[in-house]
Write a structure and sequence with these properties.
The complex is a heterotetramer, with 1 copy of chain A (551 residues), 1 copy of chain B (222 residues) and 2 copies of chain C (89 residues). Chain A is an alpha+beta fold. Helix content of chain A is 33%, strand content 24%. A 7-stranded mixed β-sheet of chain A has the order 8-10-7-11-9-12-13. In chain A, a hairpin with a 2-residue loop joins β12 and β13. In chain A, α6 (92-108) runs parallel beside α7, α7 packs parallel to α9 (229-242) and α17 (441-457) packs parallel to α18 (478-498). Chain A starts with 6 loop residues before the first helix and ends in a 20-residue tail after the last strand. Helix content of chain B is 20%, strand content 27%. The relative contact order of chain B is 0.18. The model of chain B has no long low-confidence stretch (mean pLDDT 97). With 89 residues, chain C is of the alpha+beta class. Chain C has one domain (2-83): 2-Layer Sandwich (Mth169, Chain: A). Chain C contains 2 helices and 3 strands. Chain C has a 3-stranded antiparallel β-sheet. Chain C is elongated, with a radius of gyration of 16 Å. The termini of chain C are close together. Classes of the chains: A alpha+beta (551), B alpha/beta (222), C alpha+beta (89). The C-D interface holds C 1, 7-9, 19, 22, 26-27, 30-31, 33-50, 59, 63, 66-67, 69 and D 1, 7-9, 19, 22, 26-27, 30-31, 33-50, 59, 63, 66-67, 69. Bound molecules: adenosine-5'-diphosphate (ADP). Adenosine-5'-diphosphate is lined by residues 119, 121, 152, 154-157, 391, 394-395, 410-411, 414, 416 of chain A.
């Protein structure tokens, strides 16, 4: 059994339970207490980000879901960003594609219709492997986004050797929903039925135990997730159709059913009958069903009398849908298989891992690699850097016109602009700056917020909300942790300065190369804004160039 | 005209098409493929997207559906049938229109605004339309092919052209024979094309404010 | 039980850009003059319940035709069945 | 001259949405219970100049690996060579 829990954490579990958990229970705790799901190393700092404001409809509760802001006429905008870095490093096509699928399901979990995607890609040296990575990442994003009919309206494509082994694939999505129809991710009453749609398979299983049992020598298999955008599209369409009939929606991401059920119960309890879970492979073990990370699945909490109505929609398209359990009053999460208890743990324990604060230390910076450069050489170097050449080959592979609302298209402006259902124009942009961040992460945190805002301003928009994504190396390394803390401080300060609520975000640690060196710190922000007055669009025909600010 | 917009699982453009059809005054209904009653409609539009994921080949699985047998009946009765992008692929895969749509020559998905020239006036869709139309394409498998060039030329309805109206190789985004962007049957009531007229129906999103797509769609408004 | 391979490939005379690109940009620079042709197609493998190799092949060929798993204007197919040892029939 | 087939297909245990969709929406409705599995992959056919079947297969397997014609994390390959009668070697 492979666990990521520390000795100290295991002690806490034993003490609270006053017994030794069984294997399935360890895996359950391991999934819920993972950095990915629990934010145990980052939560303390994330609390400093300003998450409220007059326009905030739904703020981020415990950093688990997308937030929403008011965009007028009864409409709310839901916004989220996420990365799929590690899967993209080993299987760039499916890794990037499943990243798109994941972010889309976050948006539909709120009952919102996804209307636009952004992709921010960072890869290393453009050697044979680098080219293979970019090419497949871009086609993977297009494959999923195009197939489900959500336009990819903008993004970034940047190159830096720090990403040689660890490319960064960030995707952001915005969706729209009537303010009074937002669906929560958590339940408030017991007696609701848990309904799961989609098959469960081997995908994302830690691998070790399964591989050694059945597929000797193929340890990575479980870790590979294959994208199925067709299933993704069915899920999007039908989830939005049944949203009015359900009490809560949760998508299944990292940690699978274990995490979705526990977080949905939110302190109440749940009973899940694992034999009712529709399986793609008959011989999955009960504890594997609990933590499988198969894509294109959703969990609904549904009033008993509505279950039939919800499932019949899916069954009509031959898509599996099953009632697998219910929400209980007793605050315990119980997984049963044919009546036998597989795992039984207090909700409280699962939802509250011991938080950690690692030692932090500022790294000595050396400015040694600066040398005098000739102006001509500098200009040529800058103008031919792959970061700055036309990205048309990339964005022309995305269907950025679907939805008939993309007003400012990729390549046409510094921000993308899409038309909202109420006729208002929404500007979107994502930015990061790994070079500045490796110099001074605090200044960089401020600078990327300001840069994103400037990009919105070029189309005449004022920022209304942002989401951030904090990508760093191993938090147990003091310099890495220091940079992380400082970046959050910078983003927080700038967001407060501009009065822009941070309505969501994500943290991705452990981004490092094969030798264990961390990537340059790469916090990233995505901002949404509304165009006020006239849209700034198109190429200027005449006029003077005016430069603002000190050079 | 009462017009059905036929939705398969994986169709992505049904809302856009319905929006554009309403603009020309058509009475539009988006219909699920398994609930399609052709007798209720004077015309049908099969919109773009990735029906059944476009697995095996674009349009193949949808072409096997009952719904497409009914579309065939409508076509035979002389009703209006329009297939856009994936809809064109489905019409070809169902043998309602002749030929094949192969992967683009550059093997990549391509989004781009293109100009097409109207080559025939004997269809209800084009009998009084403008000479050239500006519309976007967005597809992976749009290279029109037919093993009989003479026939292809006869069916050819829209042809990719450059700024000066010539069907040059540079104007051909995907390698279609004879720069074919769309075809019609001999009777002129069934049309399939790769460009998206519904995306060229709103001046806010077209690069030059034009709305040439309406030229093709307006027949449903009658 | 039979394992049946259905291979769908462009007819001779229909361009195959994937094969051409593979040959020109990947294979020829690596092993010049060793590879005189490259064609790329689709591979479909089915496990079929049938009473003989011929029946399995006939069934798959019929399905390919009727369900248009290939487009006869551009593609040709090859069907090959092989009996599986532990099959039930 | 050898005709070499290179088949690239998802590993066992790695799911194959294309095969699943084909089975669920096309094959099962047409011939229920006759087909127990459908997998879809890529088919590459090369004409290779080599001195033996083994050498031809080795060359193609090496090219597949080095030129990333498949991703070993996700795919497995099969390589099969066959001597052509009128071949030059
Ligand atoms: N990965 C990508 N996906 C989609 N659009 C992209 C991507 N990378 C760049 N773009 C688009 O290409 C255009 C130019 O990009 P870039 O050169 O990075 O501009 P900027 O320096 O202003 O950010 C922008 O419209 C941007 O949204």
């Amino acid at each position: 059994m492979m666990l990521t829990l520390s000795q100290r954490e295991m002690e806490v579990v034993r003490r609270v339970l006053n017994r030794e958990p069984n294997e399935a229970e360890w895996k359950l705790v391991d999934a819920l207490w993972s950095e990915h799901c629990s934010y145990k190393s980052s939560k303390v700092f994330l609390r400093s980000l300003p998450s409220t404001g007059p326009n905030v409809v739904m703020s981020v509760e415990d950093w688990q879901d997308a937030g929403a802001v008011d965009v007028g006429d009864g409409w709310a905008l839901v916004l989220k960003v996420e990365s799929h870095n590690h899967p993209s490093a080993i299987d760039p096509f499916n890794g990037a594609a499943t990243g798109v699928g994941g972010i889309l399901r976050d948006i539909i979990s709120k009952g919102a219709r996804p209307i636009a995607l952004l992709d921010m890609i960072r890869v290393g040296r453009l050697d044979q492997k680098g080219k293979w990575l970019v090419k497949n990442i871009i086609s993977g994003i297009g494959f999923y986004g195009n197939s489900v009919g959500v336009p990819v309206v903008g993004g970034e494509l940047s190159f830096d050797e720090t990403y040689n082994d660890n490319p960064l694939v960030d995707v952001a999505c915005v969706g729209v929903v009537k303010k009074d129809s937002i669906v929560p991710s958590v339940v408030k009453e017991s007696g609701l039925k848990l309904v799961l749609v989609g098959f469960t398979g081997l995908d994302g299983l830690g691998g070790a135990s399964f591989a050694s049992r059945k597929l000797s020598g193929l340890d990575e298999i479980g870790a590979v997730q294959i994208a199925d955008p067709f299933a993704g599209k069915v899920i999007i369409d039908l989830t939005l159709e049944v949203a009015k009939d359900v009490s809560a929606i949760k998508d299944l991401g990292g940690g699978g059913l274990a995490v979705a059920v526990t977080e949905m119960a939110n302190g109440l309890g749940a009973v899940v009958n694992l034999e009712k879970v529709p399986l793609r492979y008959r011989d999955l073990l009960p504890e594997e069903i609990i933590i499988s990370e198969t894509q294109e699945r959703m969990l609904f909490a549904v009033k008993p009398e509505k279950v039939e109505a919800v499932c019949s929609k899916f069954q009509e398209l031959n898509y599996p849908c099953a009632e697998i359990g219910e929400i209980s009053t007793e605050p315990t999460i119980r997984f049963l298989y044919k009546g036998e208890t597989v795992a039984q743990l207090p909700s409280d324990l699962l939802l509250n891992p011991p938080l950690v604060v690692w030692p932090a230390e500022r790294k000595e910076r050396s400015n040694s690699d600066s040398r005098p450069v000739e102006l001509k050489e500098a200009i040529v170097r800058v103008m031919t850097h792959p970061d700055l050449v036309s990205k048309e080959w990339a964005y022309s592979q995305f269907d950025y016109e679907v939805g008939t609302s993309t007003v400012v298209k990729p390549g046409d402006g510094d921000s993308a602009v899409v038309e909202l259902p109420n006729g208002r124009l929404l500007a979107l942009k994502g930015d990061a700056n790994q070079d500045l961040c490796s110099e001074d992460s605090y200044e960089c945190g401020k600078a990327i917020v300001a840069e994103t805002y400037r990009n919105l301003a070029t189309v005449g928009a004022r920022g209304i909300a942002l989401v951030d994504h904090l990508q760093f190396g191993d938090p147990r390394k003091p310099e890495v942790y220091h940079d992380f803390i400082e970046a959050v401080r910078g983003i927080s300060e700038a967001s407060k300065f501009f009065s822009i609520p941070v309505v969501g975000g994500k943290v991705s640690f452990h981004n490092e190369d094969k030798e264990g060196n961390p990537i340059k710190p790469t916090p990233l922000v995505v901002m949404a804004g509304l165009v006020e007055g006239k849209l700034g669009k198109g190429k200027p025909q005449e006029g003077s160039l005016v430069l603002l600010g000190l050079t | 005209m009462r017009t059905a917009v036929l939705k398969f699982p994986g169709t992505t453009c049904e809302i856009d098409v319905a929006k554009a059809l309403k603009k020309v005054g058509a009475e539009v209904e988006v219909v699920q493929f398994n609930k399609f009653d052709p007798d209720r409609y004077g015309g049908v539009v099969i919109p773009g997207g990735f029906s059944f994921g476009d697995y095996i080949r674009a349009g193949t699985i949808a072409a096997n559906s009952e719904a497409m047998k009914r579309v065939k009946d409508m076509a035979d009765e002389g009703k209006l049938v329009l297939g856009i992008c994936n809809g064109f692929q489905i019409l070809v895969e169902s043998n309602i229109l002749k030929g094949a749509l192969l992967p683009n020559l550059n093997l990549r998905f391509i989004t781009r605004w293109v100009r097409v020239k109207v080559r025939r006036r004997d269809t209800q869709f084009t009998k009084d339309s403008k000479e050239t139309l500006f519309m976007p394409i967005a597809h992976m498998e749009g290279r029109y092919f037919l093993d009989d060039e003479e026939l292809a030329s006869r069916l050819s309805l829209f042809q990719y052209v450059d700024e000066s109206g010539l069907p040059t190789p540079e104007a051909n985004p995907n390698g279609s024979i004879l720069n074919i962007a769309g075809i019609s049957n001999d009777a002129g009531n069934v049309v399939g094309l790769m460009p998206h007229p519904e995306r060229a129906s709103f001046s806010t999103i077209s690069p030059d404010g034009s709305t040439d797509g309406l030229e093709i769609l307006k027949v449903f408004g009658k | 039980m039979y394992r049946v391979e259905l291979i769908v490939i462009n007819k001779d005379g229909v361009r195959d850009p994937e094969g051409e690109t593979l040959k020109r940009y990947v294979l020829d620079p690596e092993v010049p003059n060793r590879i005189s042709s490259a064609r790329v197609g689709k591979f479909i493998e089915l496990l079929v319940d049938a009473s003989s190799k011929e029946e399995a092949e006939r069934l798959v060929a019929k399905l390919a035709e009727e369900k248009r798993l290939y487009n006869p204007i551009v593609h040709k197919i090859r069907v090959r069945a092989e009996r599986l040892e532990d099959g039930s029939s």
